[in-house]
Amino acid sequence: MTTIRTMLALASIKGWHLHQLDVNTAFLHGDDLIEIQNIKQLLDNKFSIKDLGVLKYFLGMEVARSKEGINLCQRKYALDLLEESGMLGAKPNTSPMDSSTNLYSTSGSPCADITSYRRMLGRLVYLTHTRPDIAFSVGHLSQFLVAPTTEHFKAAMRILRYVKGAPGKGLFFSSNSSISLKGVNDSNWASCLDTRRSVTRFCFFLVDSLISWKSKRQKTVSRSSVEAEYRALAITSCEA
Q: Are residues 61 and 111 part of one domain?
């Protein structure tokens, strides 16, 4: 997904044409429409493709293009998720997680429908491809997939109510930029109440276009905040 977001950000900056085919969702990029037609004809001769024209919808993601840039969102996917969960008529929330609540593995009582919780989290994970604003909350709740509780389920429903407030929210890749990569990172020392492992967080921008982000527990316990920051820096450097 980072590759796809980077491709769209570059296409916006460079003014590349984006066409879509139904052979493994192939993307052809460049500033020559004649060459694009030649390549599509070549692929059609080899694989018998169906030309879907200018890229607008793929993998549950909607692509809208203007002179200002490219907007990427999952509005239909989000609405389908809300409908499946019975949350289309729910009152929206202004934040995906209550900052005053500290969840851990034994918060609340055991969840009666573990399968529904896992399905919901799985679909929310896919929604994070265009919604970095829910990435931390979804990642945190994903830690409890083995034995979710009523509190975990309640927190997941809060995320859905937050999504309900703006189902079409997504990413924007501006066309008025030069090309430069920048990244920032941070860590929370021993923030996991169950394992006391630290959490690494980072994000990368292609100028002003957000293309990569992650929030994840570190694999080992750090014995100081300095060690946690060092591990976060190493992970961020690998991503760069």
A: no
CA distance 37 to 91: 48
Residues with Cβ within 8 Å of 24's Cβ and at least 6 positions away in sequence, in order, are none
Q: Are residues 87 and 141 in the same domain?
A: yes
Q: Could you list the residue range(s) of the whole structural domain that residue 26 is in?
A: 2-73
- pLDDT tens by residue, 207-234: 889 999 998 889 999 999 999 999 999 9
pTM of the model: 0.81
CB pairs under 8 A, 24+ apart, for 186-190?
186/232, 187/218, 187/225, 187/228, 187/229, 187/231, 187/232, 188/228, 189/222, 189/224, 189/225, 189/228, 190/221, 190/222, 190/228
Domain endpoint, select from 47, 73, 99? 73
Q: How many domains in the chain?
A: 3
The mean-pLDDT minimum among 19-23, 92-96, 121-125, 142-146 falls in 19-23
